[in-house]
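Section 5: illustrative case.
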């Protein structure tokens, strides 16, 4: 992934971007103005710009002195940065006679609020760890805010082109606030719904979605929430207006770590629940039988089901079983997926059930790239997710 400007660095740019606070260059430059072309729509908090694969803005960058006037004898280079988005146009620009532009700045994966920042850089090259760096020389500039839509779960779960290393999120290491799709008729974002609460966190899903619809929120302990005058455990069917957290990959499994979340509440402060909003399980039997990692990646963290299976024979001395209580399920056509029932369906004994037909096993789909023989693991929510029978 391309390196992006750290948020702290950009905030420092904002703080420094005043004529009084910025150090001056030899020719008197105190800061840079970053101006959009007249009439440019940069959105508002109430009406952000619509979602797009890529955003384009025409800007003019101008060197300014203490009084805000253009420094016409300034010549040099500036480097562009963004609050969190991926810059897809030129990173370095040449300033001639105190101005550069109009120039088109393109970026992708931008959400909520973005700013275009520039900083003057030295003409001297510095090599650090075989990388060429151009050190900042002082004057900086930041554009007015660009208001964009909040990211949705599919944008976070949507992986890079390759799944050989677990299909990491293209937004890995970003801190994000996630909402459901915007409902113009209702005038607000649709709610997200809790589909399971297990393993020191909970699983959250969009509704009316086919792929990349759910994500695991790792709360590190049983998640509780204030519910009116009571304190309740986060449970399936709870409606969530938005969540915030940092995107991390845990051995190929996309998580939102240390999350905060805002439940949808009624007028009395009680959390709204709608068990009917929990999406029906997606049948991934064909994906398992085809060993289709792309198909399985699209269902990560979602509620899924595999049909016509049995516990395959396995070595009870294998670490997958002795350390993690994971065991293989085999479909009638020979597809294999791992399962783990010890914590959520403890009455199911995989050793005793070897070869016994199972009509279906429903649960949450996880990935762990160090697991063998399969990186995909099915975890039922409880014993009712295991339906015995079949041929």
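Designed sequence:
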């Amino acid at each position: 992934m391309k390196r992006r400007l750290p948020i702290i660095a950009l905030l420092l740019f904002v703080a420094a971007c005043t004529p009084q606070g910025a150090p001056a260059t030899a020719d008197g430059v105190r800061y840079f103005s970053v101006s959009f072309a007249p009439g440019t729509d940069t959105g508002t908090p109430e009406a952000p710009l619509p979602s797009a694969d890529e955003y384009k803005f025409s800007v003019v960058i101008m060197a300014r002195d203490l009084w805000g006037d253009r420094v016409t004898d300034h010549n040099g280079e500036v480097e562009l940065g963004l609050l969190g988005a991926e810059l897809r146009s030129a990173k370095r620009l040449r300033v001639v006679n105190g101005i550069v532009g109009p120039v088109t700045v393109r970026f992708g994966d931008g959400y909520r609020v973005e700013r275009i920042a520039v900083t003057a850089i030295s003409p001297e090259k510095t090599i650090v760890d075989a990388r060429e760096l151009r050190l900042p020389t002082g004057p900086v500039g930041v554009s007015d805010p660009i208001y964009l839509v909040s990211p949705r779960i599919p944008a976070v779960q949507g992986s890079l082109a390759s799944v050989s290393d677990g299909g990491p999120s293209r937004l890995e290491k970003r801190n994000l606030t996630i909402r459901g799709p915007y409902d113009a008729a209702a005038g607000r974002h649709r709610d997200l719904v809790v589909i399971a609460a297990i393993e020191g966190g909970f699983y959250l899903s969009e509704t009316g979605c086919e792929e990349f619809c759910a994500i695991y929120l790792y709360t590190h302990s049983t998640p509780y929430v204030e519910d009116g005058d009571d304190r309740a455990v986060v449970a399936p069917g709870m409606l969530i207006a938005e969540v915030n957290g940092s995107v991390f990959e845990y051995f190929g499994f996309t998580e939102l770590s240390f999350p905060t979340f805002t439940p949808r509440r009624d007028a009395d402060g009680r959390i709204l629940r709608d068990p009917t909003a929990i999406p029906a399980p997606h049948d991934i039997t064909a994906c398992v039988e085809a060993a289709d990692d792309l198909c399985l990646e699209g269902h990560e963290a979602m509620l899924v089901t595999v049909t016509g299976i049995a516990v395959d024979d396995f070595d009870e001395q294998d670490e997958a079983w002795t350390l993690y209580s994971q065991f293989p399920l085999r479909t009638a056509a020979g597809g294999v997926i791992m399962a783990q029932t010890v914590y959520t369906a403890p009455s199911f004994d995989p050793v005793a059930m070897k070869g016994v037909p199972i009509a279906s096993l429903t649960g949450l789909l996880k990935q762990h790239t160090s697991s063998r023989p399969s990186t995909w693991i099915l975890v039922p929510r409880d014993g009712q997710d295991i339906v015995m029978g079949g041929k």
